[in-house]
Write a structure and sequence with these properties.
mainly alpha
């Protein structure tokens, strides 16, 4: 019985469903080990933290833009809510004598939930719009939120909100680095979103993207699933904002403008619409690129940082989408390299992933017998009990 159960698990197990988990876990274990061995320089923990919350932002936005098919430009607004509210809550908890890690966890929960509430408030009327109109509304929401945070006295006003979590981490040299908590949140986010996409709810979300009218006709509650995707995306953007608020001081409203929303959207588009793996890779590349451009282009060269960044993005987009480079991309890509390194991937048994194939369908006779059966057309015989035509004798 146990052997049969294990064989069924092995049969249903698909490595492609777990590659993102494995990659995140490997990076997490590797850099955590290097950190405690003292092999990381002072800037790498900060870079890892930035990469972590950038991936959370990109994958959560991909749920709305890539899987739902709606254009949102207000992701930085949800992050702003999480950053300010989470930092304020963490400051209160630390002032009351709570442990730093516990205060950060509670701040993540509060910041994420409040961002989700705003996602519902904005999404309920806004998701009735489509295309450019939805983009304009979400863009306006992001600008309204950051200006409200700027003018609320408890959030520090224009000078920004001081983060006590950041100060506590600087003073306590024995405290674990922030990127550990970030990668744990990233792992949990992948579990939620990837399982959502592979569930019946995820299929309903992608069906709305493909054809909203047909989805309504088949009985899918379009408003519910649009709100579900929008709220989940907002919650994780709020969590990313809390992580950001714990990694800088002060938290400034200027960092959450529409340019940052567009940068997150660039990560999604560059990685591929509806591709979680692509969003992870694109967010990592863009964050690392920005980090080192800021670090090395200082002084007079700082003026050309944006220009170099834009040129690199243009080259990446052209390489990914230019029709003239299609044959080159197909010849030299990661899958081809992986197939060369792992020859068993080329086997038909590994490539095929369809449970409805002829060779696995359970039938009473072999499929070869069905395909080799000759069909003979015979003349129809008229029953003597029935007339040949409607007007026959009775």
């Amino acid at each position: 019985m146990l052997k049969e159960y294990l064989l069924n698990i092995k049969k249903d197990f698909k490595w492609k469903h777990y590659t993102n988990y494995i990659a995140v876990a490997v990076v997490f274990v590797l850099f955590t080990s290097l950190y405690y061995m003292g092999a990381l320089n002072r800037s790498l923990p900060s870079l890892l933290n930035q990469v972590g919350y950038s991936i959370i932002l990109a994958v959560s936005l991909n749920l709305v833009v890539g899987f739902l098919g709606e254009l949102s430009l207000g992701h930085a607004g949800f992050m702003c809510i999480g950053a300010y509210v989470g930092t304020y809550v963490a400051n209160l908890l630390l002032a009351a004598g709570m442990n730093t890690l516990l205060a950060l966890v509670i701040a993540m929960v509060v910041g994420g939930l409040l961002a989700g509430v705003f996602g519902f408030i904005v999404g309920l009327p806004a998701l009735r719009l489509r295309g450019d109109y939805l983009a304009i509304v979400t863009l306006a929401f992001g600008e309204i939120i950051r200006n409200l945070c700027k003018n609320i006295p408890i959030f520090g006003g224009a000078p920004g909100l001081v983060s006590d979590v950041y100060s506590a981490n600087l003073q306590d040299k024995n405290s674990p680095p922030l990127f550990i908590a970030t990668f744990i949140c990233l792992f949990l986010m992948l579990i939620v979103i990837q399982n959502l996409i592979r569930s019946k709810h995820g299929r309903a979300i992608t069906a709305i993207r493909d054809n909203e009218i047909a989805s309504k006709a088949t009985g899918i509650n379009v408003t519910f699933y649009k709100l579900l995707a929008f709220i989940i995306s907002a919650v994780f953007a709020g969590v990313a904002g809390v992580i950001y608020g714990a990694s800088v001081s002060p938290v400034l409203y200027t960092n959450f403008d529409y340019n940052y929303s567009i940068e997150i959207l660039v990560m999604v588009v560059l990685g591929g619409m509806g591709s979680i793996t692509g969003s992870i890779v694109a967010a990592t590349v863009i964050t690392v690129l920005n980090f080192y451009l800021k670090a090395y282009l200082t002084g007079d060269m700082a003026a050309v940082k944006t220009l170099i960044y834009a040129v690199i993005l243009i080259v990446m987009v052209v390489y990914k989408n230019a029709p003239a480079l299609k044959s080159f991309r197909e010849k030299y890509n990661f899958k081809k390299l992986l197939n060369k390194l792992l020859p068993h991937r080329r086997k038909e048994s590994f490539v095929q992933d369809d449970e409805a194939r002829w060779d696995v369908v359970t039938t009473k006779i072999s499929m070869n017998e069905v395909l080799s059966t000759d069909l003979v057309v015979t003349e129809s015989v008229t029953s003597p009990d029935k007339p040949d035509a409607p007007g026959g004798d009775e």
